[in-house]
Specification:
49% of the residues lie in helices and 14% in strands. By secondary structure, it is of the alpha+beta class. It holds the Pfam family HTH_18.
Length: 297
Amino acid sequence: MDAIINFKNIKQYNAFNNNETLNPLVSIVDLGKAEPRQFRRLQYDFYTIFLKSVKCGDLRYGLKNYDYEEGTLIFLAPGQVIGEYKEEYYQPQGTALVFHPDLLHGTSLGKKMADYTFFSYAVSEALHLSEQERKIILDCFEKIQFELKRSIDKHTKQLIVSNIELFLNYCERFYDRQFITRDNVNRGILEKFEESLNNYFESEEPYNSGLPSVAYFAEKLHLSPNYFGDLIKKETGKSAQDYIQNKIIDIAKDKIFDTGKTINEIAYELGFKYPQHFARLFKNRVGYTPKEYRHLN
């Protein structure tokens, strides 16, 4: 039966993995203590980060193009589901950092969590660590575990949250490194994005379906929207949305030269539902309205 196992709190997840609960809102979980179990779909109502070795069976699905073989970090936001049902058993391995959103209330990290876009990446877009990077991650885990094992005092929560924030900031740096070291792969994605953009606007899709979204092209390239957006930003210095809008403006400039078409007709051909939205975007990007630009040339 393909039922989803839902973990609603940290204590429940610790019990599932034979780990002691030292704090109801945060835990460093040694997955090696868990009993062998069947593959299942799992859902977590809290932030979950797995530090896995490459060949750990429960999370290996979809992991491709490894940059390093020392370890892999996978990030899940509350409510996400991972895994798939299989009848065979496996022995979990690795370490998990889990923390409930309630831990972050009233902290600076709580206000910044949306900035860590890798929590919305797909499993196949995991962070692959070098040996040195893995040691840094384990050091962050050790500091958190040190605080969990101490008697609680007025500094405990602040130090735990600060170390989680430090860990996440390192992960941002390591993802930047991964985007760079996978430059050949990224250039291929950028080329395919450009090709997909051209194909879209050379077809009837804009007229029939409207303006394309970042999510549309991410799906075409089999990437999550956040990973795709971050990749394009790293490669071009522009957001994916800006990249799309720049393409629209380039195409619009050529179409405006065709005086056989009205500005409204051009707007509809480009996928705008309302011509005034086209005129506003064009003015913001070019400094002239489409009509003014037509008369300049």
